[in-house]
Target: APC family permease
Amino acid sequence: MTDTSRPPTRQQGEDGRAHWKGLSTGAVGLLGGLVIGVSTIAPAYTLSGALGPTASAVGEHLPAILLVGFVPMLLVAIGYRQLNKAMPDSGTTFTWASRTFGPWVGWFGSWCLLAATILVLSNLAGIAVDFFYLALSQISGQDWVADLTRNVPVNIATCLVFMAAAAWISYRGLEATKTFQYVLVTFQVVVLAWFAVAAFGHVAGGSAFDATPVRLEWFNPFGVESFSAFAAGVALSVFIYWGWDVVVTMNEESRGTTTTPGKAAIATILVVVALYTAVSVATLSFAGVSTAEFGLGNPDIQENVFAALAGPVMGPFAVLMSLAVLSSSASSLQSTMISPARTMLAMGHYGALSSKYAKVHPTYRTPGYATVVAVVIASVFYAVMRVISENVLWDTITTLGMMVCFYYGVTALACVWYFRREATASLGALVTKLVAPLLGGLLLLVFFFQTAWDSMDPAYGSGSEVGGVGLVFVLGLAIFVLGLIAMAVQYARSPEFFRRRFETTEYPT
Model:
């Protein structure tokens, strides 16, 4: 049951309904939401792993593809903002889709959200471990220290420590989260800006690896040589923007419940696209797209572009980039926990999960039980997959792109359907409540089906296969089937939620 140790605070949308779950109120403002949103996207960590593969797919049109990936994210965020105005609820996708399309769609949409966020927690922790030992090696001058990350027991033990630390901060509430994030986000943004300026400095001074003057053609998405390359690049660029919706899951804890989260979500996307554009153009101008030593087309550096380029670009300060990627993955590890915990809180609150998930800590006003469950699942998953095969672990992480496109797409279409009768009241309503979310949702669902189709190729991801079918597709299908099974089990345990027909004038209860 929800904690009721104090009277509920009214948190109303346009429909005037109150849905208080016991979370702390007024804990996050616009700046705090922006910082947490940026930390969840983790620009330093994301760029390090995404610049190379994206450049290998689209060449010098890298900045254009990053801008194209930004478009559906912005359109969907506009839909999220409108839904949050009408129904401010920490359940977001779960609550909105349940109310609009019914409990089955809402439950499965939230399953995809939970699968994506919990899977990425494992990846973030693994990356944090890699850069932790790399930074220690650079600081100490001992090369063998960096190899500790390849020692499976040491790697898993370190990963579990990072998981536990991140969970402890999340458990203690958003005030602790904000303080932690302000420091780490500021540090990684400063280092990324330093890297971009230094790269442009080398280009201007003639000391760049493959100095290439910036051209307008880089920003032309129609210059990509094939649609397959374009689709592959867009799929990668969509992933690098994922995570901004965490600020909307904090709506019940925000100052200005119906307005601040939506503004913070859009502000997060705008800040990140500006940062991505600056760093991608600087990197492209410095390194080019060849397959030579530091070229972005070199497969040997694509998994971690900054590890290869930080030295040539930043000189003796290269260790700062390792620390920036470490801080980026660590801060995202902690802030990413916000979303699944609050989604499970809402599901427990409305009867879609056990009432245990609706428990809120009486002191910290956080979904303590849900937070612990999320980190335990992510920790066990990482430990098991790391022992079985690192390829299986990374291919499983790759499948989260499909989950993201699905639940973002469903949520955007929920906005269209929910506001269908009032969307034509004005031009502004038509754009923000119908056109923008419709286009964004359809684009992401197209990317979902395209990715599912492409991932059937054994060459997709790590190149592993099962019976001639790509492992990424098999794992994605397994997660979807597991979700259907989990939903059926929950229906058998508590059919009341699934049998209910939600009226348009009320939340699920």
